[in-house]
Write a structure and sequence with these properties.
This protein is an alpha+beta fold. About 20% of the residues lie in helices and about 40% in strands. The chain contains 2 helices and 4 strands. The protein has a 4-stranded antiparallel β-sheet. Strand 3 and strand 4 form a beta hairpin. The longest helix has 12 residues. It starts with a strand and ends with a strand. About 15% of the residues are buried.
């Protein structure tokens, strides 16, 4: 077994979205929309392209992790900049 981590490339988008759809299908509700959220997220300024990685298992994309900037507002109204991650392992 050979595992490689690398940054996601445009050629990976379709397979990564497919992996995402399969990983989240029927988990929180019938069907899912996480793959579409990922598709849209790539075009947002909050998306951190340098922290968008795929994991390859024996040369095939098997998982993905992405990060984006966000803001959390506490009870006092103070804004805290954070980075959020979404890990999508292969459903198999």
């Amino acid at each position: 077994m050979n595992v490689t981590l690398r940054t996601e490339e445009e050629k990976d988008f379709r397979i990564v979205e497919s992996i995402t759809r399969e990983a989240f299908w029927n988990v929180y509700r019938p069907g899912c929309c996480e793959h579409f959220i990922l598709h849209q997220l790539r075009s947002f300024p909050e998306f951190i392209k340098e922290l968008d990685f795929v994991a390859e298992l024996d040369g095939e994309v098997a998982g993905n992790i992405v990060y984006s900037k966000a803001v959390v507002v506490d009870d006092a109204g103070t804004r805290h900049e954070v980075i959020g991650a979404v890990l999508k392992p292969s459903p198999g």
